[in-house]
Design brief:
Chain lengths: 207, 205
Amino acid sequence: MANDAYQPSLLDALTVGIWRENPTFRLLIGMCPPLAVSTAVKPALTMGLSVIFVLICSNLVISSMRNILKPHLRIMMFTLTIATFVTICDLYLRAFLPDMSKILGPYVPLIIVNCIIIFRAEACASKSGLLVSLLDAIGTGTGFTIAICILAGIREILATGNLIGYRVMPEAFVPWLAMQMPVGAFVTLGLILGLSAALTGKNKGAA
Amino acid sequence: MSKIKLFIQESWLLLVSAFFFGLLIAVADKAWTPKIEQNKLGETNQKMTSLIPAAVNFEQTADAEIDLGAGKKSKSRIYKALSADGQCIGWTLTAEGSGFADKIEMIIAVDKNFEKIAGIDFASINETPGFGDNANKPAFRNQFAQAPAEDLKLTKTGDAGKIDAEIVAITGATVTSTAVVNSVNNYIKPVKEYMLSKGLIQNGK
């Protein structure tokens, strides 16, 4: 792994994860948190920021040891790194944001097995320099955060009529309880995926 | 010998990193554990205070062992609620039961002689949003305040506003309602007996 095989332009490294290879809407990886914790914007944002933190830390660590990494031991190294930063993140949330930690419950420790992070470690950090890895982590993390917040925003408005605690729907609006349950996550996600495919013309010719 | 050498050669990075990462976690844990413990304590205290507003202090008194039947045993932590002048004005006890989705952990507050329930609150509840979740809403919870601390009954219809031993179930959440009422019943009686046997409360009757 001595050669830096992945060398995008710096702008590309930053933006590729936000739209073209958005982990949630375009690549469909790491789908557990977008489905599970998108009931309201606040926990979704906390989850997004946690993922950005873990992604940046793991990308930087992996990138800095990419030249001495033994190829057959790399997955173990990735998991070890990710698990460390997720544990730190979990402890931090429990100490300073206990309410959020309670809502997110097991989904913070579950970031360890989130595919996005190990995918960026394998596809980018172990094959490119520190700067590219950092930009890539910020880009991919932001893409994930935006995606989960869009989902959470739609679900929170339809399920409660509020957005981050503020009333946005008219008083007569009847909350859709289903949006707060798993079915709401799947339906919203499906519609957004369809929309994003239509926007980018990915389904052309499929008729 | 060469095998050990090969092992070290291949995995030294992993071993060294594991050591340093372990150190990192240990430092973070050491630094933040007191804060985490304090958060938990503060939350319980806040809930107990909202149940017995007149209390200024809660003193952990005892742990009662509860026999839930069918070989199941559980522990209930009992706190004594003290007023500003040091008088005992009530008790709170922890209880738990199996809800629809997860374990429901509750805090039950009772008056000085275990005759009336002062109120209940939930330390942990993860029931279905919109259904079982409503157990945490005042409409259901307030039925317990001032209810007699004896066997409570769950009914499907009735006046939820009337305070008596009948608790009106939550629509669409029979399992949750049953779990909450059963936990209250399962814990109050044995804890009362335990307190009587220890001489911590006097039987008013």
